[in-house]
Design brief:
The structure is a single chain. This protein is of the alpha+beta class. It has a single domain, classed as Electron Transport, Fmn-binding Protein, Chain A (Pnp Oxidase, Chain A), CATH 2.30.110. It has three helices and seven strands. The longest helix is centred in the C-terminal third of the chain and has 17 residues. The protein is globular, with a radius of gyration of 14 Å. The model has no long low-confidence stretch (mean pLDDT 91).
């Protein structure tokens, strides 16, 4: 299965001690076989990517259950802003439509309840699978 055509991809980032943290994310195709997603600059993913660009990716469902018959792909990931982020944002909104509005609203409500607001989708992640 082509990663860019998957509805969700399990993005596994790594803590400083090497322990993996897996999160299902929406993805869009980028040039050169790369894929992109958006996240909050205050998210754990962004914090973990600040110290290591090593990740794995694998098609999954919304709950992070991997797609049968697939295996993890080693990759590198970098946080992007500016033009690259804007391109990813446009593609995510085009692919996922109204769901982006719903998840933004749910994130705002959850932030109010936890009294910890973090920005929604304010930076992009460019993922380059290993060859």
């Amino acid at each position: 299965m082509e990663l860019s055509s998957a509805k969700y991809v399990l993005l596994t980032t790594f803590r400083r001690d090497g322990n993996p943290v897996a999160t299902p994310v929406w993805v869009v195709g980028l040039d050169g076989g790369r894929i992109g997603c958006w996240t909050s600059s205050g998210s754990g993913k962004a914090k973990r990517l600040a110290h290591t660009e090593r990740v794995t990716v694998q098609p999954c469902d919304a709950r992070g259950r991997v797609t049968k018959g697939t295996s993890p792909t080693d990759a590198t990931a970098t946080i992007v802003r500016g033009g690259e982020y804007e391109a990813i944002s446009r593609e995510v909104k085009a692919k996922y439509g109204f769901m982006t509005t719903i998840t933004k609203a749910l994130g705002a409500i959850g932030g109010m309840l936890r009294r910890k607001q973090i920005p929604y989708g304010d930076c992009g992640i460019v993922i380059t699978p290993a060859r």
